[in-house]
Specification:
Blueprint lengths: L1 E2 L18 H10 L3 E8 L6 H10 L12 E10 L5 E9 L9 H8 L3 E7 L3 H15 L7 E7 L11 H11 L2 E4 L8 H16 L2
C-alpha cells in the first residue's frame, strides 16, 4: 500500500540561474551522476531494515539477519530505474543504536547524502513512536538536501499487526513523505520503495 505525499526535503530552485555560472555547472554535473547514496534508519532494533536491505541487494530472506553495529556499507550496481536506465547505489545501514551515541549527529551528517529510507516495524507500536524521534533527529541536520520515504516493514505478519493503515497515513501526512507497506520476507514493495526514492532523488537534483 502506498500513501501519496510529497517528499520532506528539497533542493533550491536553480531554474533562474545563469547557465554560464560555476554553480550552474556544478548542478549540471550533479544531475549527470550515475550513483546515489541512500541511508537506512530504523525505528527500532527489530524493524527489519537489514533484512529489508538484504532482500533488495540479494533477493533472498534471512530470518535472523545480524544487526548492524554503528553502520554497514553496501553497494549495488546497475539498478534499473523506472525509465529503464541504470544507477549505482551505495546503501548505508545505520545502526539503531547510533542515536544513543554522543556522535550521532556526526554519523548522520557523514552518511546522509541523497536519500533516506526510514523503516518501522508494523508489528510494534513502539517502533512507530521511535521512528518519529529518528525523523526529528535528522531534521536537525543543517544544509542537508535529500529525498526520503517511510517503509512500514513486516506487513506479511498480518495477525501480529499493531500499526494501523490510518496511523501510517497520518505519519506520511505529518512528515510529508510517501509510505510503503513492505515485507522483507515476501519482497512486497521492496523494489518499488527503492525505485520511488531514486526517482525522488533525481527530481530534486533536476529542479
Amino acid at each position: 500500500m502506498l500513501y501519496q505525499c510529497n517528499s520532506l526535503f528539497s533542493l533550491p530552485n536553480v531554474s533562474k540561474w545563469n547557465k554560464n555560472s560555476d554553480i550552474e555547472k556544478i548542478y549540471y554535473l550533479i544531475s549527470k551522476r550515475k550513483s546515489f547514496t541512500i541511508a537506512l534508519i530504523g525505528g527500532s532494533t527489530h524493524a527489519g531494515k537489514t533484512c529489508f536491505m538484504n532482500k533488495f541487494l540479494n533477493n533472498n530472506f534471512i530470518s535472523n539477519c545480524p544487526m548492524s553495529i554503528a553502520f554497514d556499507i553496501h553497494k549495488k550496481s546497475n539498478v534499473i530505474k523506472k525509465d529503464g536506465t541504470t544507477v549505482d547505489l551505495r546503501i548505508i545501514d545505520i545502526s539503531d543504536s547510533s542515536h544513543r551515541n554522543t556522535n550521532w549527529y556526526a554519523i548522520y551528517g557523514r552518511f546522509i547524502r541523497d536519500g533516506i529510507i526510514f523503516v518501522l516495524d508494523i508489528t510494534d507500536k513502539h517502533s512507530l513512536e521511535q521512528l518519529k524521534k529518528r525523523i526529528e533527529e535528522v531534521k536537525k541536520l543543517e544544509n542537508m538536501n535529500f529525498a526520503s520515504i517511510i517503509c512500514a516493514n513486516r506487513c506479511d505478519l498480518i495477525e501480529r499487526r499493531e500499526v494501523t493503515t490510518d496511523e501510517l497515513e497520518s505519519l506520511g501526512l505529518e512528515y510529508n513523505m510517501k509510505v510503503f507497506e513492505t515485507s522483507a520476507k515476501t519482497g512486497e514493495n521492496v523494489n518499488n520503495a527503492f525505485e520511488e526514492l531514486i526517482e525522488l532523488i533525481e527530481q530534486k537534483i533536476n529542479k
